[in-house]
Structures are given as structure tokens and as C-alpha cells.
Amino acid sequence: MPRITVTVDEITYEEEVEPRLLLVHLLRDRLGRTGTPIGCDTGNCGACTVMLDGVSVKSCSVLAVQADGSEVVTVEGLSSGQEWHPMQRAFHAEHALQCGYCTPGMIMAAIDLVRNDPDPSEEAVRRGLEGNLCRCTGYTNIVRAVRRGAQEMAGRHD
Amino acid sequence: MTEQLDAGLVAERIAESDQLSAPSGDREIGRARRRKEDARLVTGRTTWTDNIQLPGMLYVTFLRSPMAHARITRVDTSAARARPGVVAALSGRDLADEQGSLPCAWPVTEDIVIPDHPPMAVEEVRYVGEAVACVVATDRYAAADALEEIEVDYEPLEAVVDMTEALTEGSPKVHETGNRAFTWRFAQGDVGAAFRDAPIVVERDYVQQRLIPTAMEPRAVVATTDGDSFTLYSATQIPHVLRVMLAMTTGIPEHRLRVVAPDVGGGFGSKLQVTAEEVLALLLTRRIGRPVKWTESRSEGNLTVHHGRDQLQRIRLAAERDGRLRAVQVELLADMGAYLMLVTPGVPLLGAFMYNGIYKMDAYDFTCTGVFTTKMPTDAYRGAGRPEATFAIERAMDELAHELGLDPVEVRRRNWIAHEEFPYTTVCGLTYDSGNYEAATDRALDLFGYDTLREEQARRRAEGDPIQLGIGVSTFTEMCGLAPSRVLGSLSYGAGGWEHASVRVLPTGKVEVVTGTSPHGQGHETAWSQIASDALGVPFEDVSVLHGDTAISHKGMDTYGSRSLVVGGIAVLSACEKVKDRARELAAHMLEASAEDVEFADGSFRVRGTSQGRTIQEVALAAFAAHDLPDGVEPGLDAETTFDPDNFSFPHGTHLCAVEVDTETGGTTIRSYVAVDDVGAVVNPLIVEGQVHGGIAQGIGQALFEEAIYDAEGNLLTTTMADYLVPTALDLPEFVTDRTETPATSNPLGVKGVGEAGTIASTPAVVNAVVDALRPYGVRDVRMPCTPERVWRAINSGTSGASGVSEASEGSHGSGAPQSSQGSRASEGFEGGGR
């Protein structure tokens, strides 16, 4: 079995994995990083979105072996101690989650979106998050949260 | 109200919401508290059922029928059993002696047919996806590999997919007893007389397409045993109901079965169920003696999570020339699917008293026939029966307005119950306790800019603009707060509708609220804290809410039907009042006063007219120490209550939708959406607004995007999220919401419930808007979901004046044909949308 080295939320792991093992199953079943959930099996819902070397990916669509030598950041790696990431604070402040199942992926995708577009319009947020499904909120508060998080990430508000 | 969020308004919005979270007076109720639940959810420290990992745990996968209807002639699991890592490979036959039958708790008529429903098929499969065998293995991948090794031989039987055909003589039978499950009728007044010489009769057929609830968290079950007792973790809305039903089904004694609903990622009714997988997981852990876990894939879930809606509706209105209603008559065919699950037959009945909507009339007649087909069973989906009813009456009211040349809002005004007429007993015998339809409608029209949009519509029509504007209205009510137990009894439901709460003030003055409700996104931990905080005069932060575990919350009826606040929240309040009564007695003793002279305010008991007092925290410590208790007072400061409501609650509201329809492509875009809801008093406006937003989105999903499609052989074609279209952020507008507030009179908080309102209201608002846009083209209906293809076909058949375009000519996904006048489709019967 291939042996891979992968850093997840600042901890480096060496693992022997089947070539077919999905990154999300490596995270959840092998490494116990269950903060990243699975919502579908066709890459549509985006619940499992993580950062792979700084870019958001759907971890159900990445093989663990593809993450060899890479750095993965999950929702669990965003906050430092008690201090939440501005996007986490924004989702809380704007009531942008209800059941919260889509939230880890939504937050990771939103952070990536804001890195590319530091002051996104409503339209840009809606377009940027089209690959992340939420069944609870109707997205209105998610859009508000992402725009608020963008402001905070840019230091325009804290 | 929410404003359009322009870039420049972001800072303002932040300031506003910060202000909302800042202290604003003494009361917690009414504050936009940020949720306690969020901390674990935004940081990923959650306990979804699939996150649970127990020592020695095994993984279960199910082999599912690829046939809609077939006899099972052979199942060979031996090759699967021989695979590495496989602990067991079992067929339905292996489990036949112990698996029992999945329960149906709502036998709606005396002569209802409730077929045997084995959790794993033994002799016959009746829908694609029904489990026929399973593998238990040491990891997910090994289990999936072994599944491929199981051999099953089927002898195909004919699929039954069309309800109308299913009821014809000579139709293949889903069950030996035939395809009719029940017929249920309810009539009030003289409907015959009302229709006999009615100046106006509007008759329409509508198709409530089959929907897939699609909670974001797929179902998952973990079962474990120590050889004596059992624990089942499940992504369920109903841990308490589940425990009772599993004990009855499996024979595991109830007192040795604990059911836990950990973090649950949405339900919308789909997790209001006793599922095959829950029963089978218990049987497997009992048989193998090790913990087992099953987690469904989304594709598996689309096949096997119960579906929603799927009704053919015929609604007839009799009206005067001025638009006043005389009577409503409704005939339903409701697709049960292959079996009757927990409340399958009851779902259409939850709408049976609602087709009159908010309107006054003299007579009413409702008939529903439940039909078996070889499809996944239907059951509760957000609104359950009430969205269907609201859709039919609100669509029909628009048709009535059109027939009479009246504005659709005006025809509603002429019929609705005026605010001074409450409490009002409707033609169906329900007493609507409070409401103000005028206020909600006026506010909505104002926010929407109704007159301006009508002017723009007229202009575009006159100019022949290829982009037509449509305006849709929906003035709805719903019966929620399920439910008075005696009413459920009168409808033959198998249980009551009460709710339980217990409240304890701990020795250190902190408070634990134990609730029988089982939240899965609704924010009960926050809202119940607000209620308890006000009632006991303790800080919001000092309250914890415990739920979702039958070992912690021993008594409850769980969460569905917009019931949690209206029933469960009132139970919390009443338990707090009981605690306060006990504390008052002890405080009086401590203060050497009589209890009548002790008053409670701001968390302290004071002797009236003096500065002498004890805080509730001091009383709690004294109650714990128990060194000096008055006679008859027990140690500890706690109490519990069970609340059973006297009546349903009746939220209402007015929703307005403006759509732009591209008449060249059939594409529909929602331009604006205004919702003014009256859900009574509000505990947390942030949570209420969120519920309304999400509800609207789901209703829009039904109107424009979603449909579970089976082909003629009974294969589900929409098994993935690429095929079954849940709305994305890009599909929806920013919703404008506001509220009016007429408190419910049926409970001390004046609350009405909000969980289903948006879904119930929005579907007809959107479809009314689409049809309104297309009126100049002779279009009278577009079947849901109003896809570009259906809209385009409606426009083109409408333009050509062909009112009789049949479904067949449009293919199996075809739209409803335009209806040229009242009653014109009568001869088509229900064949139109039978697929």
C-alpha cells in the first residue's frame, strides 16, 4: 500500500493507504478529523470542502494519495485556541447556519472565495458558493455572513 | 425586515446586528440572541452519528433491489461471507424470524389496509432500493466490496407507478389486497346545494409532484449492546417515539433500550420515521454482539429516505359573481408508495381541514384515497399535507380571480376572515384563535411595491416584451403546534401530542432544562434558554438545555409539525413556573414570611414592601443543603410538567413573489420575494427569520426545481444531487421578510410556531407568479416544477390556443395543459398527471 505524508491542521501524519481511499475518509475514519462531514457521493454538495495547499477542494473528490506531501486545513484547524476565524464569527453573527451540516464546507469555500475576491458583491458570493448546498437557510444569511466575514478578514471591521 | 444588502450597507448591517445582540432591556424573550449551538457547529466539534466510533465497531452495507417489483427466488451470500474482513452476510430470510414489521402509527380508517412491511425483503420487493441483503465488515470499503459478491435471483413482476392506473380493474397489484389503501372523507354543510346553481364554478387539477426531503446529513445509525441493554444512535427527529416503536417492533424491552439523537443535520420530516435500517442495526448488534454502524450514501438516501407530497388534486370552488366563496370540494389521490410507514396515511389528512385556507364558506367536502404503488413510501415532508392544501386553494383563488376579472388580492379580501371576527370557527370546525390577514397583506403589498409592479407588468405586456413579469400572491394559514392529544385520538393516530419538560436549578444556581423536543437545526438550546432565563430570572448563559437522549430526557414526543415551541416551549415555561412556586415556598420559610407575601422579580424573592430577599440561586443552595426545609418540602429545586395543548395554533401570512419569465427560453427568475408572516409572539427574531428564509427556499424548490422522477419500470431517475435539484445560492434571491404580531390566545407565550410557514406559503406564490406572467399567452397552469421546458411548452401551446394538449404529447415530464375555462379538464379525469 502506498505510504503518504500529509499535514492536517498542523499535525503531520504518515499513513499507509489504499490507492482508492478518499481524502475525506482518511480525515474522518483514520485521523479522527470528523469536523468535515460528507453530504453526497457525486461532488455536488460541498459539505466536505477543505483547503488543500491553500485552495478549497471537495475532499470526497480527492484521493488520499493525491494529498501526499500536501497541507490540509479543515474547519477544525481554522480557530487558534478560543479565537475563531473571522468567517466563523461572521456565520455565527449572521445566523448563517441552522443544522450546521453544510457549515464546515460553506466556511472553507467562503474563505477561499474571499481570498480571490476580498470584497465580493452579493452576486459574487452566490456564484462563488453555487457548489455548496444548504437546505436550511435559503442562503440569505449565508450571503450576509460571507460579506461580513470578508470585511472582517480585510480588517475593515472587527 | 431585511434590506437589500448593497456593498455600502454591509457596515450598517453589522452595526445593526451588533446592536441586536447587545443588552436591550430585561427580557430575553424577543431578543435576537446568537445561538448557543453554533460554537460546536462552526468549529467542527460536532457529534453527527457517523462521527461516532466505538471500539470493535463494524460497518453495515445493504444490497438493495434494482427491481421495482419482483419475487426473490434466491439469495446467496456465501461468497460475500468468505471475503476478508467480513463478519456476516445475511439475507431477509436469515432475519425473517426476528425482524418483525415496520410500524404504521396512523390507521386513518377502520378498513385501511396496512401491509406487512419487513425491514429486509424476504419474498418480494416492491420498490427500487428495498434492502434484500446486508454485509457486516470491519471497514466501509471491505463491506462495499463484499456486497458485490452477493447473488440474488429475481422473478420480475409488473411495476405499478401510476395512481390512476393502479385503481383501475385489472391493474397489477402491489399487494395481494389490491392497490387501494383507504378512502377517507370529511364533509360539512350542503355541498350539493352550494354547487347546484352556483354562478361561478372553478375546477382545476393540480399535481403535487413527489419530492425528496434532502436533509444535508444523510441518515446514519450506530447500534451497540453490552449483552443486556442496547443503545441506538440515530440521525432521527424522534428519539422518544423511536424507542417505543423499536421496542414494539424488535421485542427488545423498552427499559433496556436507549435511543440517542446526537447532532442531527436537518430532517424536514424525513427523519420522522422508524426505518428499516434502525431495526436492522439493532438486530445485527444483538446477533453479532459488537457495535455496528450504517451510514447511507446520498444516492442510497434518495432511493430510500421516505419521499414527500405526490398527490393528484382536484379542487372545485363554487362562488358568487362577486367572488365570495360558497363551497370547496376536494378529491385527492395520495401516493402511499409500496408500504405504509410511520404516518404515511395521515399526511394528506393533515391537509384535510386546510383546503378552505383563510376563507369563509358554507360547505366543504374532502375525500382522499390512498394508493399503493411500487415506489418508495411517502411520509411527512416539511408541512405534510398543509402545503398541498394551501397550494390548491391559493392556486384556485387566482383562477377564480381571473375568471371574474378581479385582482387576486381583492378576491382574497372578499373572502377572508376579518380580524374582528376572531376567534372564528371555520367550515372545517377548526377554531382559528387569532389573526390579522389585513395587516399582514397590507404590509406585504407595501414592501413589495405591488402597484408599481402591476404597472410595470402592464407596460411589458403592452410592449410585447419577451421578458414578462408575473406577480404571485399567497395568503396562507396552517394548523400547527401538533397537537391536542384528544384530536389526534379522534383521527385514529397512535399517540398523543403533548410535550414534556423538566427544569432543575442546581446547587450553584445554574439551570438545566431537559426537553422532550429533539432539535436538529431549530435552535432549541438557545430559545429554551431564553424562556427559562426570563421565567427564573437567571442569566441566559446560566441555562443549559439537554435533549435527544432517552436516558437524559426520559419523556417526550420530539420535533415535527411546528410543534416544538408551541407545545415543548410551553412545557419549559410551565416547569419553570412550578420551580418558582417551590422556590417561593422555601424562600418564604427562609425569610420567615408567608408565601403569599413573597413576590418574585429579577431573580429574587422579596417580602412585599421590604428590602428583605433571597435570590433564586440562594434558595437553590438551601434546597440542596436541605438543613432547614419546611414540612413537606423535598430537597432540591426542580420540577417537571407535561403540556397538552387545547387547540392547534394558526400562523398566517402573506407572501408575494415577482418572477421574470423569458418567453423565448422558458427560463424563470425570481426578481423579488416578500414574506410577511404572523407567527404570534417571537422568542428569537433571528431564529424566526432563519426558519422563514429556509422554508421559502424549500417551497421555491418545489415550485421551480425539484421532482423525484420514476420511469415506467419504477426506476428512480433522480438518485443524485446532480439529478434532483436542490436550490443553490444562485437560484434564489435575497428574501425580504417582515412580521405582524397577533399573539396566539391558546398558550401563555402567545406563540404559534414557524417551522413550516415558509414552505407552505411560498410554493403557490411562485407558481401563481409564473402563471400570471403567462396569462397573455392563454396559459392557466404550469405543472410543478416549472422548469424552462414546461414553461416554454405552456407558452407555445397556450399561444396556439390548443387547450387540450395532453401529457403524452409532452413526454413523461410534460407540463399541465393550459385550461381554457372552468371545468374544461373534467373529462380528462385524473389521468393528466398520473405519472
Automatic annotation (TrEMBL), chain A:
The keyword ATP-binding does not apply. Signal peptide: none annotated. InterPro entries: 2Fe-2S-bd, 2Fe-2S-bd_dom_sf, 2Fe-2S_ferredoxin-like_sf, 2Fe-2S_ferredoxin-type, 2Fe2S_fd_BS, Beta-grasp_dom_sf, Diverse_Oxidoreductases. Keywords: 2Fe-2S, Iron, Iron-sulfur, Metal-binding, Oxidoreductase. It comes from the Bacteria. GO terms for molecular function: 2 iron, 2 sulfur cluster binding; anaerobic carbon-monoxide dehydrogenase activity; metal ion binding. Its EC number is 1.2.7.4. It is an enzyme of class 1 (oxidoreductase). Gene3D superfamilies: 3.10.20.30, [2Fe-2S]-binding domain. This is Carbon-monoxide dehydrogenase small subunit. It holds the Pfam family Fer2_2. Residues 2-78 form the 2Fe-2S ferredoxin-type domain.
TrEMBL record, chain B:
Keywords: Molybdenum, Oxidoreductase. Its EC number is 1.2.7.4. The keyword Oxidoreductase applies. GO terms for molecular function: anaerobic carbon-monoxide dehydrogenase activity; iron ion binding. It comes from Streptosporangium saharense. It holds the Pfam family MoCoBD_1. SUPFAM superfamilies: CO dehydrogenase molybdoprotein N-domain-like (SSF54665), Molybdenum cofactor-binding domain (SSF56003). InterPro entries: Ald_Oxase/Xan_DH_a/b, Ald_Oxase/Xan_DH_a/b_sf, Ald_Oxase/xanthine_DH-like, AldOxase/xan_DH_MoCoBD1, AldOxase/xan_DH_MoCoBD2, AldOxase/xan_DH_Mopterin-bd_sf. This is Carbon-monoxide dehydrogenase large subunit. Residues 797-817 have a biased composition (Low complexity).
